[in-house]
Amino acid sequence: MPTLRIPTPLRPYAAGQSEINVQGSTVAEALDELVHSYPALRQHLFSEDGDLRAFVNLYINDEDIRHLQGIQTPIGEGDRLLLIPSIAGG
Amino acid sequence: MLPSLSHAEILRYSRHLLIPEVGLAGQQKLKAASVLVIGTGGLGSPVALYLAAAGVGRIGLVDYDVVDTSNLQRQVIHGTSGLGVLKVESARQRMLDLNPDIQVEVYNEPFTSANAMRIAQDYDILIDGTDNFPTRYLVNDVCVLLGKANVYGSIFRFDGQVSVFDARRGPCYRCLFPEPPPPGLVPSCAEGGVLGVLPGTIGTLQATEALKLILGIGEPLIGKLLLFNALDMSFDFVNLRKHPRCRVCGPEPEVTELIDYEAFCGVPGHDHEEGSVGGGYDIEAAALAERLKQGNFIRLLDVREPHELQISQLENATLIPLGQLAARLSELDTAEEIVVFCKAGTRSARALELMVSAGFRKIKNLKGGINAWARQVDPSQPIY
Q1: CATH number of residue B357's parent domain
Q2: In which element (H, E) is residue B207 found?
Q3: pLDDT tens digits along B41-53
Q4: Nearest Cα to A2, choosing from A58, A79, A61?
């Protein structure tokens, strides 16, 4: 099952979890299921029109999905999805 | 022509000179180099200390703040004896004590579009140790426009990021983050906190990258982003690429000079809590105490996190953390008079905005938060 790493700023909206097993054969399906299970995450990931927000960076293993097939990128067993947050602390 | 080293310097740097990748020529390169450190806080502390110790010949420091007690949990370049002292001065003294052979230049001013080019132009490398989005976009654009490397580091709670943005050789910060998150979505360290040692980890990695760039050794983090999590002790690397339509480093840039970064990000260029919302929505702690004393019923709404109640509390307050407020508005009565508060007034300002747009009218923001209450009304409560 693919896994999704949740960065610290988003953990409060995902029941405090750092890593979640996701289901689906594409990124879009996995994210659908994710925000269905954790509705509070939706506004952080998607705009009101349902598009992935421009400041959300999603990687599969070490590649940006924008350089693959976007949210239609297929995912499979052992893939690791990383959400990269905008953080500014110093 | 690289500067020569004195006998005293040769002794000081002997552990460097023994490494073939550094050697005498490398140490001379360090002596000839100049690095501008923007921010002398959590990240800037270890960066400035290690660059000074390593013998980087000229180090610039930009900060406009003074040392505060709440800084000392992580800002290890400063000390208790320096409380109230300008951060750039406090840092300079410590650096020159560590290494009197270097030059430390200080800029006691905020880094802004008005002064950034003037300050940055004389340095080889910039190190981003700032604490807010507007200044991060500013540092990036300065580096792209001047053709310099930006050694980036950023932290929040247990998470850190490190990269080297050099638009001449790879992507820039805007290629990764073309636009900032909406105001209020990402808490700052002043609101959300940070593990004190985390900037130590991330800042020393930034210093490492700066030294590698100067020495021309190893593989700098150009085109790569390091993601660190202290709880999992995980280091993840992802590949970054140039954004084909990057607004500043792309083939048809729209940003060809510095812009208004506070307007671009919709937030101020510092991590100090404002505490007030304006527009007649603020109430001073003393005024609130007076109204309560007169026996008026006022619903006190605490939008902090539950663990913060262990630090300080207002009697009979209702707790709904800001993150849950939108979903729990039905628990509140629009007919009641409500005063919203948090630690210092930033989260409550956001809560107030949310509630006003949901139709709440009899609502005020406790200016300066429960910390102001502790200062003005109840000194038995601590300030944090």
Answers
A1: 3.40.250.10
A2: helix B198-215
A3: 999 999 999 999 9
A4: A79
Predicted TM-score of the model (pTM): 0.92
CB contact under 8 A, A55 and B129: no
- List, in sequence order, every residue forming a beta bridge with B365; answer none if it has no partner: B282, B340
Domain enclosing residue A28, as ranges: 3-84
Instruction: Please provide the size of chain A in residues.
Output: 90
Provide the ipTM. Answer: 0.91
Told to judge if B189 belongs to the known catalytic residues of this protein, a careful annotator would answer yes
Any domain includes A75:
yes
Return the number of other C-beta atoms located less than 10 Å from residue A63's C-beta: 14
Tell me the count of A-B CB pairs closer than 8 A.
101
Domain with B313 in it: 282-376
In a domain, B1, yes or no: no
CB B369 within 8 A of CB B343: yes
Q: Please tell me if residue B290 touches chain A, with a CB cutoff of 8 Å.
A: no
CB–CB contact A89 B176 (8 Å): no
- Facing residue for B186 by CB, picked from A5, A9, A18: A9
Edge-to-edge strand list for the sheet holding A3-5? A19-21, A3-5, A80-84, A57-60, A63-64
The mean pLDDT value of chain B amounts to 95
**Surface of B (209-268) touching A: CB under 8 A:** 225, 227, 229, 231-232, 236-241
Domain assignment present for residue A46? The answer is: yes
For chain A, what is the domain count? 1
CATH number of the domain enclosing B144? 3.40.50.720
